[in-house]
Amino acid sequence: MSSNIDIGFILAAGRGTRMRELTNICPKPLIQVKGKALIDYNVDRLLKAGIQTIYVNLFYKGEMIRTHLQKTYPDVDFHFIEDYMPGLETGGGIFQILPELTQKAPQGFFVLNSDIILEETTPSSLERLKQHWIPEQMEVLLLFQPTEMLYPAGQDGNYFLENGLPRRQKPGEQNIPFLFAGTQILHPRAFNEAPKGSFSLREIYDRAEKRQTLGYVIHQKRLFHVGTPEAVKIAEEAL
C-alpha cells in the first residue's frame, strides 16, 4: 500500500549541547558536513519524496535557521513555528500546532530529526515508509537503523523485534539491534492522550507499542547521527 503523505515536519528547536562550542554561534541544524548544513540534507530528502510543504519548529537561534532555509529554498512552502517555551521537546514541539496538522494532514505526516544523514536506498527511505503506511491501522511508523551500519560506530540501539513487533528497550538491556533513525510517519490521533506542554515523542511511541499500532521499516544503508564534534569529523571522512 502507498499513502499520499504530502506534509513534512523537521525538528530543529534543540540547543545541541553535545556539540559544545560549535553551537555557541551556530544552531545545530546549520552545522555543516561536507559544505552542506545538516538540516539541508533532510529538506532535500523531503523534496525528493515530493513533499513541498514543510513545517520547522524553532527555538535556539531560530531566526538563523529561518533565514538560511528561506534563502536556500526560496520556492519551498515553509511554515516556521516558534516554540512558545524552552524545552518543549520533540512531542511538545509538534503538539502545539496539532489542530493545523490534523486539518492539513489527516492521514499522517513525516517527522524528521535535523541531525541525521542517511545514505539513501532505491526507493528512498521516505518512499518505503509511504509504501508501508496503513493509516487505518497505524499511529506511528518508525524507520529503524541496524546498529552495525550506524556511525559513529559502537552505539547501542533502542528497539528489539519480537514476534515481528517492535519493543523499546528496558533499563539495563544491552546489545539492542535497532536504533530509531530519526525518520517517521505520525498519525494525528497518536496524540489523542498527549499532555500539554513538554513531552517526548517516546511517550507516543510507547502508547502505540502497547496498542500494537506501532510499525517499522528497516533502513538498508548507512546512517550518520551527527550529534557531537567527533561525529561531524566521522561523517565528513566517511562521506
> Looking at CATH, which topology would you report?
Spore Coat Polysaccharide Biosynthesis Protein SpsA, Chain A
Give the amount of beta strand, in percent.
Answer: 25-35%
Indicate the CATH class. Alpha Beta
User: Over the alpha carbons, how many angstroms does the gyration radius reach?
Assistant: 17 Å
Major sheet details: 7 strands, mixed
For the biggest β-sheet, the strand order reads: 5-4-1-6-12-8-13
List SSEs in N-to-C order.
EEEHEHEHHEEHEEEEEHEEH
Just name the CATH architecture: Alpha-Beta Complex
Globally, the shape reads globular
User: Count the helices. How many?
Assistant: 7
Give the N-terminus to C-terminus distance in angstroms: 33 Å
The counted number of beta strands is: 14
Structural class based on helices, strands and sheet pairing: alpha/beta
Task: Tell me about this structure.
With 239 residues, the protein is an alpha/beta fold. It is built from seven helices and 14 strands. β10 and β11 form a beta hairpin. The two termini are 33 Å apart. The mean pLDDT is 96.
Briefly summarize what is shown.
Helices cover 27% and strands 26% of the residues. By secondary structure, the chain is an alpha/beta fold.
Secondary structure elements and their pairing?
Elements: E1 7-11, E2 32-33, E3 36-37, H1 38-48, E4 53-58, H2 62-72, E5 77-82, H3 89-95, H4 98-104, E6 109-113, E7 116-118, H5 125-132, E8 140-146, E9 150-151, E10 159-162, E11 165-168, E12 178-186, H6 201-211, E13 214-218, E14 223-225, H7 229-238
